[in-house]
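Team,

Forwarding the record for the chain on the shared tracking sheet. I've put the sequence and predicted structure together so nobody has to dig through attachments.
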Amino acid sequence: MALKTGDKAPELLGKDQNGQEVRLSDFKGKKLVLYFYPKDNTPGCSAEACSFRDGYADLQNAGYAVIGVSKDSEKSHQGFIAKKELPFPLISDGDLVLQEQFGVWQEKKMCGRAYMGTVRTTFIIGEDGTIERIIDKVNTKDAANQILNDKQ
């Protein structure tokens, strides 16, 4: 069953690009932007990551921390962070545990073919660990402003 607005987010979020455990409590006192994306170094995912990078100072000033999540490996995340100069961590969710908890690992269709994949979604988690908002229509080129301007 997918997490929804009002639910508590899980304490253990996974491991980042350096193999370090990431916990919700690491962000105590901040709101957390937890964004799920399909794949490192693809056009839409790069645009979204760069939007968060470019708006990072404004997000921090507004009390937010940012973490990206995909099923890519830690090594892939390290390269993506270096290439795009990302100032925030990326969680490697190769076993899909976090994506399944948040309900973003779903059946997708392309060219008449069905397959399982990550549905691009952003969760805003409040300082108390509760999911405050879910953005399921992500504007990849303006993702940071969607949060800052409270737009769906």
